[in-house]
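>> received
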Amino acid sequence: MDKKNGRQHGARRETTDTGQDASRSSRHHEREAVFPRRIPRASRRASLIFLTPWGWMGISESSKGIDAIALPKRSKRAVESDLRTQSNESLQSGESARLEAARRQLLDYLAGRLDSFDVPLDLSRGTSFQRAVWRMLQRVPYGKLRSYQWVAVRVGGRRYARAVGNAVGANPLPIVIPCHRIVAQDASLGGFSGGLLMKRKLLTLEGTLRYLKTRH
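>> returned
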């Protein structure tokens, strides 16, 4: 109310000083009062939490595509918390053809029946460098491993290996964007945002854990 009244008072002062121009400005403010501008609603994300043989998982989507995946956890609450921490946008439970397709494909992957994914993704929350890294990860096929340096060379040079590691760790779509296939240059396991136990399970599923020299 104070801001609105302030604008109206300013328009009256301008009418006194500048005559016709200020009168038009006043009429403009009056039109805004009668026909206020539409204020866009806060962005919302739809989510789906579901049970898998590995535990509870979650996925969320924006208007552009799937934008987050929560890896298997023991409880629905933990999955919901994981999804919420990935964005400041409000999260609402919902269903859509896109969420259902992602759910079905993830279940098939965990059952060993699927080795690639076909759902639209929204990577817009990442920086340009992170998005370049995430797209490179999508080029690592099922049953293969690549090193952080391999990725770095393809997104700018070996000197970016540490930055690549940070971008890999920030991947919002694990499994679908297969950051678990990235290992250390010396063929040790490397890191994983979902924990090394989960990384071992995923690599065992894909038959590549045996290629690594460190299994502890």
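>> Confidence is low (pLDDT under 50) at residues 1-42.
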